[in-house]
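Quick illustration, no need to memorize.
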Amino acid sequence: MLIKPKVNETTVLKQIPSIVSLGPAHRVEPVQFGTIRLFWFKAILEYSKLERFSYKGQTVEITPREAVRRVGDDLTVLCKVSYPIDSCRMTVGSTPYRLIPSQQDEEVVYSGQGLQFGECGAHIKHIKEEWNGNISCMLPPPSGSIEVTGIMRLVVAKPPANPQLISPPQSNFKEGDVFMAQCIVPNGRPVAKITWFLDDDQFLTGVHQPIITSEPGIDLETISQNITKELSADDNGKRLVCRAEHEALDSPREAARQLVVYYPPKRTEAGQVTIFGLKIGSEGRLNVTVRANPPPEAQWTVGELVLAAPQKNEDSSITALEPVHLGGGYYNVTLVLTAVAKEDVDRTYYLRVSNDLGREEFALRLSTMDEPAGVELSPGAIAGIVVAILLLITLVSLTVFAKATDRWCFAGRSHRTDIPDGADSEAPLPPHDDIKGSENPTHEHGDFISNGDTKHPEKKPDTAV
């Protein structure tokens, strides 16, 4: 009677190190014990994912644990144990190599301080595409016959396809629109890196988290990333750039589109505009700078005269020029006076600038004075300062006048200087006539007549002199 041997998980796990030590170049036939076949393969697979391998307390240290290289680059991998060894084997891709320190002529040669120091290293002179995957090293144990193994991951870089920028098909947008775009960089190994730019400035706000995907059966990865942005006038004319960087590329690759943003006319300065430096009898130019997209139309009003640029009045003394594009959405709008007259300085000029999205209006004044240096003040601010100074001068003058004439809040503030000793300095002052005394030249003071404890002044009759 044939008795089948019992095989359990413990028995299989004990055999894994010896199985793995044979390397991927060797074909290993699993034991035909029904369901144990699948378990065996799974156990070997999980074991091979480890970055350090140990057997009976012995550990293989391998550096680097992962590396990215281009085809044709070189790579040095070092496996090390804490005891001397007498052999060094390494598997690169599907090819096994027995590395001997004295042999340095092969494509893969020994690297390290020596076997006596427990170092088993490989210098790979030229990376090949088919070597993408694991590199494993097999070292003898301090005792016994089961090798210890270390594994690192080599990623042979493969450039991705060109980046794809997906955005709305319309050619232009309006200020305030929410713009959305997506950049896709397919089939790179490893995954590519996406960076967004507006012209030369990196775009950071509104950048979503990237999404990385791969197709079953291949080790190439595709990255995609979305952005969201509320458009403003400053975005008009800028290039939105999706830039892809990758280890296998000599320089980044880009996909881009230009943003066209429409917005109504905008003034560059607030309030009334004053044109300085004009001279009576000479030509005068009234220049106003505005921003607009699409290009604006200009209309000037001079008294009863209305001119739509480009247009002149009947005697060609006033000309409204067509707006001139200065770049970046800025336009110079100009009205030309052939000869500035005195009445021109006294009037206000009005300008209306408009396009399909809105309009902006300006009031202009002329001045024959030079433009003030330093901080510029509007006419309203200057008038406020003048009024404040006049009020301050008036207040100071009234205060001095009132104090000098004992008027208003300064009235009745004279003080006696002939208060008797011991008198209460806080007592009320006597009438003004008592302070001056009698007008009788022969009696300077009145006598006091005693009437009990109270003394009353008595006037003596005037006597002729």
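Residues 164-259 form a domain with the Immunoglobulin-like fold (CATH 2.60.40.10).
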